[in-house]
């Protein structure tokens, strides 16, 4: 039976599994199934080598969805020289969130977050919001693939609309991800002023000092893949700020904190 793999941390709890039959129906592939491949964050390279070899060699496997392990799967594929092709964002940001096979059954990869996020961001950072808060800034908590995609989307918006925040701060506890983010963000030049901070102990001070109407994004995985929140419970969000919780499941204390403060305002 033809199937695809879902590479994540706790795939059985993901909403993607619930939505999968609907996607298959819309795409007219009703017989396609999905299989989870769960690995904790920071798993050894061999885990991803093994799963990529399995996907590549199994003729019934058509590809994979990748969530938490986008950077690790990209690295594994490059180490094994398995990718026949990669899209421009995968090449540039060194991650993959989608694996598929071409007409010759060769394994290919794409970083689709960098296509989707620029379309999603303007739905809640609207032109009206930008005109009301011209001094707004953005803080992205987490320098992994999802965080970089948000920074990329902000840069694309600024290219088309000078009212978008010129200041984007990314934070992370992992020094390797911080250095990677610094290298990748240099490409934006004058579109956005990007600062990358470490460690996470600076998060609370950075968020508290933001101008009104700013954007705060949780791209850390905390509250889903790992417990807790990147912010202390006492941290106050700026008035009229926009809070984006990227986690779609889990306890999500970051999201609960934002909801409570919204009710108080």
Kindly describe this structure.
The protein has 265 residues and is of the alpha/beta class. The protein is 38% helix and 19% strand. It contains ten helices and eleven strands. The strands form two sheets. A six-stranded mixed sheet has the order 2-1-3-5-6-4, sandwiched between helices. Strand 7 (138-141), helix 7 and strand 8 (167-171) form a beta-alpha-beta unit. The N and C termini lie far apart (53 Å).
Beta-strand residue fraction:
15-25%
The poorly predicted ranges are none
Strand order of the largest sheet: 2-1-3-5-6-4
Radius of gyration: 19 Å
Structural class: alpha/beta
What is the N-to-C succession of helices and strands? EHEHEHEHEEHHEHEHEHEEH
Report the sheet with the most strands, covering strand number, pairing sense and barrel closure: 6 strands, mixed
Distance between the termini: 53 Å
User: How much helix is in the residues?
Assistant: 25-40%
Beta-strand segment tally: 11
Count, helices = 10
Global morphology: globular
Mean pLDDT score, rounded?
Answer: 88
Summed up:
With 265 residues, the chain is of the alpha/beta class.
Structural topology:
Blueprint: E1 3-8, H1 15-26, E2 33-38, H2 45-57, E3 61-66, H3 70-80, E4 85-86, H4 88-93, E5 98-101, E6 107-110, H5 113-120, H6 127-132, E7 138-141, H7 145-160, E8 167-171, H8 175-185, E9 193-197, H9 203-208, E10 215-218, E11 242-245, H10 253-264
Helix pairs in contact: 2-3, 5-7
